[in-house]
Amino acid sequence: MKRRTFITLLGGAAAAWPLAAGAQQAGKVPRIGFLGAASPSTFASRLEPFRLGLRDFGYVEGANMTIEYRWAEGRYERLPELAAELVRSNVDLIVTHTTPGSLAAKRATTTIPIVIALIGDPVAAGIVTNLAQPGGNITGQSFFNPELRAKRIELLKEVMPRLTQVAVILNADNPSTGPEFQAMEATARSLNINLLPFRLRGPSEFVSAFEKMEQARVEAVETGDDPLSTSLNAGAIAALAARGRLLSAGSEDIPRAGGTLSYGVDVAATFRHTAVFVDKILKGANPANLPIEQASKFQFILNLKAAKALGLEVPTATLLRADEVIE
After folding, report:
1. Between the CA of residue 308 and those of 153, 219, 252, 314, what are the distances in Å?
2. Which fold has domain 145-264+299-326?
3. Could you report the per-residue pLDDT of 224-277, keeping only the tens digit for each?
4. Where are the domains positioned within the chain?
5. Could you tell me if 249 and 223 are in contact, meaning their C-beta atoms sit under 8 angstroms apart?
6. What residue ranges in the chain does DSSP mark as E strands?
């Protein structure tokens, strides 16, 4: 069962942006720089919608536009140099995602337009000062991740009412995880749940982290939306959670990989919508005047098979609220 989700458009006028408009000069093929925090193989489910979105506006990769890719493979320390490479290659604009990717792009250039496909909170991260008038050379889409991660704690409690101990995976190299954990703690306290943070830097730390979760007798794990625990490593995390008989919640990658549930934005639709910003900028719009859009509809995915394997009886009310049930 799946209901389509939508992204609201805040709107706003766009002034001329000469540097980007140069991409539309007769005979010139636009060149887009894509700064990825993950890897091309694990990011395919996001990239393809982005390419389809570009096709909606007549841009076909390899025909009348090119994309220069740079991939950090989950190693955020590589992002600044990869962003600098794209700037040196003189691309017409840069598309990126996540707080680390966005910060790297912002620090690399103040002139090349930057489109953020998806970020938790660009204001809190210091990337822009205002969503409606971002100013500078940056625009894109946000989804206020602290609230989403807190909502997952509520859903875990619904699925397992006796829940009292939840582990939380945080990327130690992602500055956005601080505010996210604070929001989760507030929700957890109201539900009499104790949160145990696990600050990790790579997949090599997963096994030891889950061993510590078992020793701490946690009953569930919330994995976040960072590439560390989404498409890049969702399968490994879901398998470790299942082995430890833990409920798991995170991005949509988690239930699709065998975990329990997810609550968040429709990531594929969001990446497809990124092409709207790209098209406007290539046609001369100034990113300073393109409001950063906020997701207003979210999807709840429940892997009923995974829940039953843990011996859980999911409440009917929870089942009925799910946008998609994996059986």
Report:
1. 19, 15, 19, 8
2. Rossmann fold (3.40.50)
3. 988 888 877 999 999 999 999 999 999 999 999 999 999 999 988 999 999 999
4. 18-143+265-294, 145-264+299-326
5. yes
6. 31-36, 66-71, 93-96, 114-119, 138-142, 165-171, 194-200, 220-222, 247-250, 261-264, 293-294, 299-303, 324-326
